[in-house]
Design a protein that fits this description.
- The complex is a heterodimer of chains A (about 350) and B (about 130).
- With about 350 residues, chain A is α+β, with helices and mostly antiparallel strands.
- Chain A contains eight helices and 22 strands.
- The model of chain A has no long low-confidence stretch (mean pLDDT about 95).
- The chains are: A alpha+beta (about 350), B alpha+beta (about 130).
- At the A-B interface, loops of A face strand 4 of B.
């Protein structure tokens, strides 16, 4: 067990690597109740998010649709990354990180009062993520037939309220699946029901190797308030258009974009039998230095992979200082694995 | 509760030592250590014939979580290594005192083994960790 943002969480229930493979090949369930669910309620909730989020909530047109976004400070630094759900015109839902919860709530709250939006932290909800190619059908077995058909009808990146449960087709593994927010008292029964249906219990360790293979950033490792989305592989989440939308951090990001980012994010693949770890030094011959922001052993690729922040002029290969040795690594464009299959895009 | 066989000696850095009939010693890492490290993915072994000073780093076991050095418990020469670990590091997780052995050493002199721990003392150490 480890302390994670104030929550006691298991790194693994058994073998972390077997848990990883279960998600890639069948299905696994993660208790992600540490994630903070906060509802924004008020006529001007959309306007508030339009100001707070670097991605554009105007993209949320249909009820139930979800949007991944960074929340930035005035300097373009990343306060947190989150998912926003559009539930109804006066009701949006955010899922934010556990470790950043207090500062997020303070930041959102300080802007919410101006527009009369109420924040409701949903401590009453637990959250289970069921992920893998068989995750949806095995989860559906735990529901009434009516609920199951509603859940199975969900398109990717949509969620819907089904009775007391909010079921979303989202995740953090690069596999299909659901994230289910439900009354905390119901979570145990669902968990054990899933286990009985062959869905494996998975801990934080597998969650990390799965998200890294999927090329997804981890807040606090791969970006934070000292870095901006443009140098963190998250430019795709920043909606500069329409130009009249005045989100917090826009001016700073536009200035950075105009002069060109000094850094960029790359994926790294190591051939040597060693493991990339965060904070290892990356040496780019003739260019400069960078840093591994996340590194691990990829169970799918049977070698080490990582994410790194490197000088913008970095080419197709670098060296990483691993336990006193300089090892060659290939730079690639994440993801490393998509829907169970290796995908390595060489960086040109 | 991790297993701590009575007939082995242990180090503070979580290696175990088994005295072999021919005077050599076999070493590996304890059940407690493999549990703490989690799934092992790489094992770096020394060359057979290498001489080691007491306390010298002689191997590395690396898990998904962390890399950990293995130290020579006494001054010795490496006389055998468990080459299977190169392809199957998980043997250490599955059977840390058996098929997951790491190497055999021939002590260079009648070594001072007073720093080694009995199973009981190691149990106390592991419980504190």
């Amino acid at each position: 067990m480890v302390d994670f943002g104030g929550w006691d969480m298991p790194v693994a229930y058994g073998s972390q690597i077997e848990e990883h493979h279960a998600v890639r090949n069948a299905a696994g369930v993660f208790d992600v109740s540490h994630m903070c669910v906060v509802d924004l309620i008020g006529a001007r909730a959309r306007e508030l998010l339009s100001r707070l989020l670097a991605n554009d909530v105007a993209r949320l047109k249909e009820a139930g649709s979800a949007l991944y976004s960074c929340m930035l400070n005035e300097h373009g630094g990343v306060i947190d990354d989150l998912i926003a759900y559009y539930l109804a015109d006066e009701h949006f839902r955010l899922v934010v990180n556990a470790a950043t919860r207090d500062k997020d709530l303070a930041w959102i709250g300080s802007h919410a009062t101006n527009v009369d939006v109420r924040l409701l932290v949903r401590r009453d909800l637990a959250m289970l993520a069921v992920q893998g190619p068989l995750a949806r059908e095995r989860t559906a077995l735990q529901m009434s037939s009516e609920a199951a058909s509603a859940a199975m009808a969900l398109q990717p990146f949509f969620g819907t309220q089904i009775g007391d449960w909010f079921v979303a087709r989202t995740g953090y593994t690069g596999e299909d699946g659901f994230e289910i927010m439900l009354p905390a008292g119901d979570a145990g029964k669902l968990w054990w029901g899933l286990n009985a249906a062959g869905v494996r219990s998975c801990g934080l360790g597998a969650r990390d190797t799965l998200r890294l293979e999927a090329g997804m950033n981890l807040y606090g490792n791969d970006m934070d308030e000292a870095t901006n989305p443009l140098e963190s592989g998250l430019a795709w989440t920043v909606a500069f258009a329409p130009t009249q939308r005045d989100f917090i951090g826009r001016a700073a990001l536009q200035a950075i974009r105009a002069r060109g980012s000094e850094h960029k994010r790359v994926g790294l693949v190591l051939d040597e039998r060693a493991v990339l770890r965060s904070h290892q030094r990356v040496i780019v011959s003739g260019v400069g230095e960078g840093e591994v922001t996340s590194g691990t052993f990829s169970p799918t690729l049977s070698r080490s992979i990582g994410l790194a922040r490197v000088p913008a002029a970095t080419g197709s290969s670098v060296q990483v200082e691993v336990r006193g040795r300089l090892l060659p690594a290939l730079t690639v464009r994440p993801p490393f694995v998509r829907h169970g299959r290796p995908v390595i895009h060489r960086q040109s | 509760m991790s297993k701590i066989p009575e007939d082995l000696k242990y180090t503070r850095s979580h290696e175990w030592l088994k005295s072999m009939p021919d005077g050599s010693i076999e070493i590996g890492i304890s059940d407690h250590a493999q549990e703490a490290l989690g799934d092992l993915v790489f094992v770096e072994l020394p060359e057979v014939g290498r001489s080691l000073a007491a306390g010298e780093t002689c191997a590395v076991v690396e898990s998904v979580k962390a890399a950990s050095d293995i130290y020579a418990p006494v001054a010795a020469t490496v006389i055998a290594i468990n080459a299977q670990l190169a392809e199957a590091p998980e043997l250490i997780n599955q059977d840390p005192y058996g098929r997951g052995w790491i190497m055999r050493l021939k002590p260079t002199a009648q070594g001072d083994d007073s720093a080694l721990l009995s199973a009981h003392d190691y149990q106390v150490l592991a419980a504190e960790a």
